[in-house]
Amino acid sequence: MNVLLLGGGGREHALAWKLAQSPMLGTLYAAPGNPGIAAHGQIVPLDTGDHPAVARFCKERDIGLVVIGPEAPLVAGLADDLRAAGLAVFGPGAAAARLEGSKGFTKALCAAHGIPTAAFVEVADRARGQAALDRFEVPMVVKADGLAAGKGVTVAATRAEAEAALDAIFAAPGGRAVIEEFLAGEEASLFVLANGTDYVAFGSAQDHKRVGEGDTGPNTGGMGAYSPAPVLTPALEARALAEIVAPTLAAMAAAGTPFSGVLYAGLMLTAEGPKLIEYNVRFGDPECQVLMARLDSDLLPLLLAVARGGPIPAPRFANDSALTVVYAARGYPVLPETGGRLAGLDAAAASGCAVLHAGTAWCDGALVASGGRVLAVTARAASLGEARARAYQGVELIDFPSGFYRQDIGWRELARQPGEA
Question: Global pTM?
Answer without folding.
Answer: 0.94
